[in-house]
Structure formats: C-alpha cells, structure tokens
Write a structure and sequence with these properties.
The chain is α/β, with parallel strands linked by helices. Helix content is 31%, strand content 16%. The protein has two domains: 159 residues, 3-Layer(aba) Sandwich (Rossmann fold); 145 residues, 3-Layer(aba) Sandwich (Rossmann fold). The chain contains 14 helices and 14 strands. The N terminus is likely disordered.
C-alpha cells in the first residue's frame, strides 16, 4: 500500500502510453561539481561496452573512486499539466495525516540524498523548485538557496523566507518538530517514502507525482523509462564480468566514521544488496544472512574476507584515507581488500540514493570494480 497516495479521482486514460525509447546510458556523464572524489570528470569516459575489463577483479591492487555523473534520464515531460486540489495521505512519524495540496508552484523537495528533487526534475517540473537541500545537485540549479545544514537539519527560517507552497520530504532530514511547525505555519507538507531500491523508487515516483497533481500517465512513463534503463545498464555490466565464477569479487559495504572503530556492515534491505547483486559481484553480507545495518566485529569481517570494500567518500576521508583506514583497523588490513588496498569510495549522497540515479551509480561502480584502469 502506498504511504502517500492520491485519493482524488483520476481521469481514465483514453490512449495507451507510447513505448519509451531506448536510453543511451553510456558513461558520457558530467561529474557532480560538489561531490567528493570528482577531480576526474566522467564526461570523457567511454561506454561500459567499450571497456576492456581487468582479467581478475579479485587481485587488482589499489583504491578507486567511483565517478558518478549527473542524472542521465531525460525528463518524461516539459511543464506537464497539473490538476488541483488533490488530497493525499502524508505518512508522518506521528501518524498518517491527510494533506490537501492546492498549489505546487513553489516546491521544496528535501531529503538526505536529493532523490525527491531529482524526481521533480524528471517530471519536467524542476522550474518549480525554489530551494534545495545540500544533496540536490541538479544541473543549472546550483544557485538555488540551500535550506539544510550539514545535510541533516532544516533551516526553518530559511524555508519560510522562500515562501514555498509545498514541501515534500522523506523524513531523512528534520528535526520532525521543525517540519510540523512549517505545516502549522500554513505550508503544505507531505511526507513520502524513502527509496533505496528500484521497487521503492517506483512507489516513491507515484507518491511524488500524486502530490504534484500529475495524472497516472507520468509516473507510468517514468517508471517504465527507469526500469528499462536499469535493465540496460545491467546488460552492459554483464559484458565486463569474468567468465570464471571464482573471479567474481566478494564485496562488502562498510559505513565508516573516523578511526575509532566505528563501522557498520550493510546487508539485506539497505539498498546495497541490490547494487552488489546488479553488479554481478558476491555480496558477503548476503552469505551470512545479514539484515539491515549493524555494527561489524573485527572477527566477522576477517572471516568474510571481502576482495573489495565499498565506503562513502567522506567516511573514508574521516578515517584518514585508505592508508589511515588500514592502519587504524587491523581487521581491514587482514582481508584481501586491505592487503590489496582495494577500497572503492562512492559519493555519500549517491550510494544509497535510489531514484533516477540508480543506473548512474551502477555505471560508476562497474567501472571502479571491473575496469579501474580506465578511470
């Protein structure tokens, strides 16, 4: 069941939706200007199908930064027709609340990953955005006022000053009482789902479309387009995989903060599990039935012995880089990944973003894993 669903009557479509054209999801992307580890630009990278993969991705020496470009999916419409009023159910932490949206001409789409704003952009309504969170880096919208502090907290005064008519958030930034105060101040606020996987993204796409007063044809088209793009990217990645199953790299994702031994292993339901599977690699967390995000013990990490460790770029930076991480964490040093310094860092806001970025993140990770010499 949708957590943020339209309850107004939808007009029946009188014509079928045209087949979405095949998307050219090559690596020709532009790296995010504000993201960590983006000194190299993705614009000149060849398509995955043009790469020569390394012979043994389990034995490659040295770290890599996954280069992930700006959203590659085209908008499904340009200034589509919106119909108001629309009554939706906002799934707040305090319980479900009906919200009647009468105006979405000035929108703030706030999340820790920037996913919601990217969906507004994908519907051809980026021109309605009047501000952004620090994670939203849509091309041409870098000058929008930032209304979040350190990516997690909302500047209420800054929000009110922008006079938004609609705020969409997934609850990943707050505090919650600040969001509710904005509603009390007369601003329409809707809480949508947080997406980490394709299925969650498809649900979120419908929720955002409902709040924006869009007919079903728009999320239908976007979902079809994104699903096709993910399938196409997985097919490209398949051309890079070693034929010998024993050479498929064993991968772990660790959330790291500093050198004090704070690291979590991400498993089933985190979104990382989908990514690793789509990359054709072996998910070490899945092997032991690891669910969610939980602290990782030194002994367990050594026993799992990943060939590659994925980390967030800022997390790696906080640990003093690859050398600092390996020096501070003996368990990392004892794994194949540590011995080969095979640490791949990914921009923090993108690795778990979901949304329209999924094909782009897969593209960047595939290069770092199977063709690091191409970066």
């Amino acid at each position: 069941m949708s957590l943020f669903r339209a309850t107004r009557h939808r007009v029946t479509l009188v014509a079928s939706i045209a087949t979405v054209a095949a998307l050219l999801l090559s690596g020709c992307q532009t790296a995010s200007p504000d993201g960590p580890g983006t000194a190299a630009q993705a614009a000149d990278l060849p398509a995955l199908t043009e790469l020569t993969p390394i012979a043994d991705p389990t034995a490659w020496e040295g770290p890599s930064t996954a280069i992930i470009g700006t959203p590659s999916l085209p908008a499904v419409a340009e200034n589509p027709e919106q119909q108001f009023p629309v009554t939706v159910v906002s799934h707040d932490l305090t319980g479900d609340t009906e919200v009647t949206v009468t105006d979405a001409s000035r929108v703030l789409a706030l999340s820790i990953t920037g996913t919601i704003a990217e969906l507004v952009h994908a519907y051809g309504l980026a021109g309605t955005l009047v501000g952004r969170d620090v994670s939203t880096q849509l091309p041409g919208y870098e000058d929008l006022p930032v209304v979040t502090k350190q990516g997690h907290s909302i500047d209420a005064e800054g929000v009110i000053a922008l006079e938004p008519t609609l705020i969409l958030t997934d609850g990943s930034i707050g505090p919650t009482d600040v969001v509710l105060q904005l509603r009390d101040a007369g601003i329409q606020v809707g809480t949508v789902s947080r997406a980490k996987t394709p299925d969650q993204t498809y649900e979120l796409a419908r929720e955002v479309a409902a709040a924006l007063g869009l007919a079903d044809e728009y999320p239908d088209a976007l979902i079809a387009q994104l699903d096709e793009a993910i399938t196409a990217k997985e097919a490209e990645i398949a051309t890079l995989l070693p034929e010998d199953q024993a050479l498929r790299p064993r991968v772990a994702f660790l959330y790291i903060r500093g050198t004090a031994g704070v690291y979590y292993l991400f498993g089933e339901g985190s979104g990382i599990d989908f990514m690793i599977d789509a990359l054709g690699a072996v998910d070490v967390a899945e092997e032991i039935g690891w669910v969610g995000e939980k602290p990782m013990t030194d002994e367990a990490l050594v026993a799992l012995n990943p060939d590659i460790i994925l980390v967030m770029s800022k997390g790696l930076e906080s640990a003093g880089g690859v050398d600092g991480l390996i020096a501070a964490q003996p368990s990392v040093a004892l794994t194949n990944a540590g011995q080969h310094r095979r640490i791949i860092d990914v921009e923090d806001t993108l690795i778990l973003a979901g949304g329209t970025r999924i094909p782009d993140v897969l593209d960047g990770l595939a290069r770092a894993i199977y063709a690091p010499d191409s970066l």
